[in-house]
Amino acid sequence: MRVRLGAILGSIVLALATTTASAGQLEKLLAPGDVAKAHAKLEADCEKCHDRSDKDRQKTLCADCHKDIAEDLRLKRGFHGHALKPGADCTACHTEHKGRDANISRFDRDAFEHAITGFKLDGRHATTGCSACHVAGKPFRAVHTACVDCHTKQDVHRGKLGRDCAACHTTTAFKTTSFDHDKTKFPLKAAHARAACGDCHRDPSFKDTPVQCIACHQRDDTHKGARGPACGDCHNTDKWKQPKFDHDKQAHFPLNGVHAKIACDACHLSTNLKAKIPDKCAGCHAADDRHGGRFGDDCAACHNEIKWKEARYDHAAKAHFPLRGKHEKLDCNSCHVGPVSGAKLPKDCLGCHQADDVHHGTMGKECASCHTETGWKDKVRFDHDMTQFPLVGLHASVACEECHVSQAYRGTARDCVTCHKTDDVHHGHLGKECATCHNPNGWKFWQFDHGRATHFALQGAHAKLECKGCHVKPADEVKLPTDCGSCHARDDAHNGGFGKDCGRCHSSLSWRGAGVRR
Predict the structure, then answer these.
(1) Do residues 133 and 180 lie in contact, with contact meaning Cβ atoms separated by under 8 Å?
(2) Which of 31, 118, 425, 440 is the most buried (most CB within 10 A)?
(3) Tens digit of pLDDT per residue, the chain (518 long)?
(4) Could you tell me the CA-to-CA distances from 22 to 7, 26, 239, 300 in Å, in that order?
């Protein structure tokens, strides 16, 4: 029976395969059932949804047609974007070949958790029917999620405050609002916090509401605008009749001493307190200035606000130049020969004492590094150790003029031979730096390790030679070679046939007794 059934099916397959039209009939014959109406046009073309060679490619083929769903997955938005990962298997939720009228989405409305779409249903949204937002015949994903898309009629602001109604309103009731006025440029305090919104916001759009006090309080302004529109400079938001004005913080002019006792109109000649008045002492006290403006317009630098005649001036703190020694006894006119504001005095010593400088500027402008303010010749001090030539040994007891032949001081040579040329028994053959061997405690206290310093130890006959036997020219001008042949070419009976390293056969004691040593 099975053999006969197989033969029949084989005959049918052969018959259908003979034409192109029969191929579609064959695929339909082998299909597990009819596809849904939405896919009916693709029923004869299985390759649009199925890849016989790659079963996993089906989810990619789905995305090729359903581009809107693919975009949701890529951007991680909506139900598919939040609940699924890119490349998810569509057949996990959607079925097919169940008939034309079959529902191919496995979707349970009662058990569906709306929060995974990215739009949580809370407040009134939780009790609203699905059809109120999801119109029949349109995909669920087609619904817009902006508040104003559903609540245009309730928007008394007519869209002027944007599309995000939830910034102020709640989902419990549209009239229940939450708005932090402190985050605006006009925080509500005291009586303002108790005022109704409509008292200030005449336009429901809330835009361009004035923030100046006078815009709402013009009827309360007893000054009739003479003191400007900023009532808050003097009045507070608790009670209008409790004025306050901090002259220090708001006018930047603290009222201290006698200033605190005088009437406002003594300075504010106009009823408009915003009118600019001088804030410098001389603006009001020019007639009291016995200096004739010579010390500028800031009288407070010396005088105080309690008593005009109690003058004081801290030269160190304010001029950054303390008056000590002979400077303290000088008259102000000795230095301040012109108006202080126009003639800025130098603070370096040479600015005033150039004529007294016996060094003619060679020691810089800071005379105080050696001299004191009690007198030029009084306790002159100089730390030679801070120079590039510290005085040690016998140098510390030598008079300054022994080395410094002029009072210019700078430019004095630091090399030993400049001062000790007559003491140089080597006559310059060992260079200018005597300190290489000698020390400043005395010429006889000298030491020199030829091996360590030159990497050429003096052994044998070399140890008995005088320095000038090799150093015929100054050591700092000519660097001597260390190979044997350079000095003993005339002693080489081999005429260079065995190279320059005589030490391989000969010793430094004597040329005789040669033998291969290494």
Answers:
(1) no
(2) 440
(3) 444 444 444 454 444 444 444 555 556 666 788 888 888 888 888 888 888 788 778 878 888 888 888 888 888 888 888 877 766 788 878 888 888 888 888 777 777 888 888 788 888 888 888 888 888 878 887 787 788 888 888 787 777 777 888 888 888 887 777 778 888 888 888 888 888 887 888 777 777 788 888 888 888 887 777 777 888 877 888 887 766 777 888 788 888 888 888 876 678 777 666 778 888 888 888 888 777 777 778 888 888 888 887 778 888 888 888 988 888 888 776 787 777 767 788 888 888 888 888 888 888 888 888 888 888 888 888 888 888 889 898 998 888 888 888 777 877 888 888 888 888 888 877 778 888 888 888 888 888 888 888 888 888 889 888 888 888 887 777 788 888 888 888 888 888 888 888 888 888 888 887 777 65
(4) 19, 6, 95, 112
Instruction: Show me where the domains of the chain are located.
Output: 23-145, 278-345, 481-518
Q: And the tokens for 165?
A: 């109604």
Asked if residues 414 and 430 have their Cβ atoms less than 8 Å apart, the reply is no
- Structural contact between residues 186 and 237, judged by C-beta atoms closer than 8 angstroms: no
Read off the DSSP letter of residue 39: G
User: Hey, is 71 helix, strand or coil?
Assistant: helix
User: Given the structure tokens 């001029």, which residue do they identify?
Assistant: 319
Helix or strand run (H / E) with residue 368: none
Contact 516, 505 (CB under 8 A): yes
* Predicted TM-score (pTM) of this structure: 0.32
Rounded distance, CA 102 to CA 184, Å? 56
The one-character DSSP state at 263 is -
Question: Helices (H) and strands (E) in the chain — how many of each?
Answer: 19, 2
How is residue 116 written in tokens?
């995974």
- Cα 454 to chain centroid distance, Å, stands at 53
Q: Which two tokens stand for residue 152?
A: 């245009």
| DSSP helix/strand/coil, 419 | helix
197 C-beta neighbours (distance < 10 Å), count: 13
